[in-house]
Amino acid sequence: MKNMRIERQMTFILVVVLSLLGTSIASAAKAEPVIGVPILIPNNPVALSTITFSVDVTGDDITFVKIICQECNGHTGICHPTQNITMTKVSDITYEQDVALKYSDATYITYWVGVQYGSIWKNNTGVKLNLSIHQPPDDNQTNGSGDNKKTPGFELAVVVAAIAISMILVGRKRYR
Amino acid sequence: MVFSQAFFLIIIAVLSGCLNSSQGNPTVDFTFTTLDGQTKQLQEYYGKVIVLDLMGVKCQPCTLQMTQLKQIQTNYSRKDVVIISVDVWISLGENAALLQQYIDAFQQQLNITLNWTFGLDDAKGTIESAYARNGIPTLYILDKKGNIYYTHVGYDSYITLASKLDEVLTKA
Question: Which of B28, B9, B62 is nearest to B130 (CA)?
Fold first, then answer.
C-alpha cells in the first residue's frame, strides 16, 4: 500500500518535471525574428511623395512590425519628427505600409524596421537614402496655366494682341 | 477727440500686454533617466547655465552636434556650464545600451570623450513631445534659473552656441 503511494507520487513528480522541461524547450525553440531588407517603391523618392515599404519578417510570436522613417535636412541639420507606423501583414511573411513624406525641405530619409516579439523589441540597421530633387510638373509648362508661373505664357500674348488691335482700330478711326 | 484718445490708450495697453507675454520666462523642466538608471529632474541642475541637447542616436545631425558640444565642454568651466544630452527616441526603440554604445564609439573611433550627463526620455516620448516637437537636435540654453535663453532646432555651430553662452553668462 505504501509502495503504491510512493509510486504515485513519483509518477506525479515525473510528469511535472517533464512538462516543465517541455515548456522550456518549446520556448527556447521559438525563433527570433529575422528582418529582411526593406523594398521601397519608388526606390528614388522625392520630398512629399508617398513611399510603399515592403519587408519580409520571419519568426515566432511577432506582435507587430513597424516601419520607422525619419526625414532630415542635411543643410540645416534637422531631423523632423519621425513617423513610426505599424505595417500591414499582406502574406505569411510580408508586411507592407505606405508612408507619406511630410516635409518639403527634407533632403534625405533614414528608415528602419522594428519588430516587437513577446516583450522584446528588435530593429534592423537604419538605411539612409538621399531624396531625389523635386521637379514640379508645372515647371516645364510655358502657357502660364501652372501655379508657379514664372514664364510669360499665352495670357500675355492675348493682352499684347488686344492692345495691338485696339491701337489699329483707334488709328483707323482717327484716319477717317 | 476723447474717443480717439481712449482708443489709442487701449491699443497701447493691448500691445504692452503682448510684449509682456512674449518676454515671459518660460522654463524647461522634466524628469529623465540617466545611463546608470537614476531618475533626475532637470531642476536639480538649476544654478548653472544648462546646455540641453535633445537628440537621438540614429539622428545624423545629432552626431555632428556632439563635436560642437565637446568644444563647449572643453572651453567652458564646469562651475558655470553644464551640458545634458537626452535621447528622446526611446519610443523608436533606442535604449540605454544603444546610447552607451554610441558614447563608446565616439571614444573608440574618434577619440572624443563625451563626458557630460546623458539621459533618456521615457517610452512614451514625454520629453520629445513637450520640448522637441519640431525635430532634433533641439538645443536649449537655460539661464541659471532655468529660464529659456536660447533655443534652436537643428545642428548649431560652436560659434553660435558660444556667443549665446557668453551673453547669458555675462547677464547672470
Answer: B28
Which CATH number among 3.30.450.20, 3.40.50.2000, 3.40.190.170, 2.60.40.10 corresponds to the domain A34-130? 2.60.40.10
Tell me the average pLDDT across B21-41.
82
Interval A6-60: pLDDT, tens: 777 777 776 666 665 555 555 555 678 999 999 999 999 999 999 999 999 999 8
| B contacts of A121 (beta carbons < 8 Å) | 93
Q: Are A143 and A153 in contact (CB under 8 A)?
A: yes
Q: What is the C-alpha radius of gyration for chain B, rounded to an integer number of angstroms?
A: 19
- In 3D space, the residue among B90, B34, B104 whose CA is nearest the CA of residue B58 turns out to be B90
For residue B132, the chain A residues in CB contact (below 8 A) are 81
Q: What is the pTM of this model?
A: 0.69
Pairing state between β A83-86 and A88-89: unpaired
Residue by residue, DSSP assigns chain A as -HHHHHHHHHHHHHHHHHHHHHHHHHHHHSPPPEE---EEESSS-BTT-EEEEEEEEE-SSEEEEEEEEEEEETTTTEEPPPEEEEPEE-SSSEEEEEEE---TT--EEEEEEEEEETTEEEE---EEEEPBPP--GGGG--SS-SSS--S--HHHHHHHHHHHHHHHHHHHHHH-
- Spatial contact of A102 and A48, defined as CB atoms under 8 Å apart: yes
- Residues B50-87: pLDDT tens digits? 999 999 999 999 999 999 999 999 999 989 999 999 99
Q: Taking a C-beta distance cutoff of 8 angstroms, is the pair A114, B94 a contact?
A: no
Q: What is the pLDDT of residues B112-136, one digit of tens each?
A: 999 999 999 999 999 999 999 999 9
CATH fold for domain B28-171: Glutaredoxin (3.40.30)
| Whole-angstrom distance, CA of residue B122 vs CA of residue B124 | 5
Residues written for chain B: 172
Asked if the C-beta of B61 comes within 8 angstroms of chain A's C-beta atoms, the answer is yes
* B59 vs A: CB within 8 A: yes
Dig out the grid coordinates for B95 from the structure. 535604449
